[in-house]
């Protein structure tokens, strides 16, 4: 086992454990911190795979923007008195974990047994090619997602303002 594989396993475990903690923790603030750790671990995996641009975008967009958006949402709403409803029965929790375990085992089996072609030469993309694709062919979708995110933020502010009144 080389160093790259060791760090890949470490970051993958951090991402998986953080994702489980997002669902298992009680307080919303702790869930946001676990989500940030999960995003950082995924960015580290991108760096290990040689996709530095995607890793930087992962840090800027998800760790920076999405996590801060959740923090602002926590600050604008009264989250201390809000519960998530009654706790599900233990059988439902056990069945959920067993189902997730089977899904994980199936995905790992599919990844390990996949017969992927090995070209020997890694693909090297550049930020210029990604920028030309994003602002050339997919410009309308890019602007649409910007409008969607802006309207979601405005909606969160309106909902938070009505709760304060």
TrEMBL record:
Q: What is its EC number?
A: 7.1.1.-
* Pfam families for the chain: Oxidored_q3
> What keywords appear on the UniProt entry?
Cell membrane, Membrane, NAD, Quinone, Transmembrane, Transmembrane helix
What membrane topology does this protein have?
Multi-pass membrane protein
Can you name one GO molecular function term for this protein? quinone binding
> Which Gene Ontology terms of cellular component type are present?
plasma membrane
Transmembrane spans: 6-25, 32-49, 55-73, 94-114, 134-160
Catalysed transformations (reactions) = a quinone + NADH + 5 H(+)(in) = a quinol + NAD(+) + 4 H(+)(out)
Q: Where found in the cell?
A: Cell membrane
Q: Which domain of life is it from?
A: Bacteria
Q: Where mainly located?
A: membrane
Family of the protein in this entry = Belongs to the complex I subunit 6 family.
Q: Please give the function described in this protein's UniProt entry.
A: NDH-1 shuttles electrons from NADH, via FMN and iron-sulfur (Fe-S) centers, to quinones in the respiratory chain. Couples the redox reaction to proton translocation (for every two electrons transferred, four hydrogen ions are translocated across the cytoplasmic membrane), and thus conserves the redox energy in a proton gradient.
Name of the protein: NADH-quinone oxidoreductase subunit J
Q: Which organism is it from?
A: Salipaludibacillus neizhouensis
């Amino acid at each position: 086992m080389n160093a790259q594989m060791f760090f890949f396993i470490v970051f993958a475990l951090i991402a998986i454990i953080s994702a489980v903690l997002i669902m298992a923790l009680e307080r919303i603030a702790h869930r946001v911190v676990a989500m940030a750790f999960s995003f950082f671990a995924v960015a580290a995996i991108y760096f290990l795979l040689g996709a530095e641009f995607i890793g930087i975008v992962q840090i800027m967009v998800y760790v920076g923007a999405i996590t801060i958006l959740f923090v602002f949402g926590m600050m604008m709403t009264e989250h201390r008195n809000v519960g998530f409803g009654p706790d599900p029965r233990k059988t439902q929790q056990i069945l959920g974990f067993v189902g997730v375990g089977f899904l994980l085992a199936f995905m790992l089996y599919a990844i390990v047994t996949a017969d992927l072609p090995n070209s020997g030469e890694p693909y090297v993309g550049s930020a210029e090619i990604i920028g030309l694709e994003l602002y050339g062919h997919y410009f309308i979708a890019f602007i649409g997602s910007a409008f969607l995110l802006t309207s979601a933020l405005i909606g969160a502010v309106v909902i938070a303002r009505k709760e304060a009144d």
